[in-house]
Amino acid sequence: MPSPSATSVTRRRQRSTRLTVAVALLALAALTITAAVASGSWLVVVLAAVLGLALGAAATKITHSELLQTRRDWARDRAEQAQAFRVESEKRAEENAEFREHMDAKLADRVQAVQELEAALAAAHQRAADAVRRRGEEARRAAQAELRGEQLEAKLQAVEADAAEAAIRVAELESELDAVRAELEAERTSWTGAQSA
């Protein structure tokens, strides 16, 4: 099958040839009538007029057939163009369907990713809330332990003060005991000396 450019070139040549022939026929008719009028004979003029009419009719017929051929060519071109547009439209419809499927799959992936991220975010929020709660409990325990430590420190200081006072009292009592023992020893010595005398 010839290419569209080759077909259009062929058509242009045919059109040019047909139109050239039609113009040549009209020119021949005009020339014949002019020559007949110049001859001055009415019979030659009438025959030239009939010949001119026949040549004009032939030129009109050639031009008419050229017009019909051009219209048929245009109709065929429009049909081919419509067929090409239909094929292109079907191709675009297929491409659009593929694109839509691709975008639907991509959207589904994105939705799934968003759902997974939302689940992970909810889990992270729960872990953060648990950590904050545990930290609060630990802080409360630490505060209680610190308070108990302060109370124990105060008790320890009180006990140490009591122990210091007790140590002082023990030292005083030991001193008194030593004095009493010394007195007792002195009395024993004087008693023993009195009995031996």
Automatic annotation (TrEMBL):
Domain of life assignment: Bacteria
Coiled-coil residues: 114-190
Keywords in alphabetical order: Coiled coil, Membrane, Transmembrane, Transmembrane helix
Key word Transmembrane helix present: yes
Transmembrane segments: 45-62
Name the record gives this protein: Multidomain membrane protein
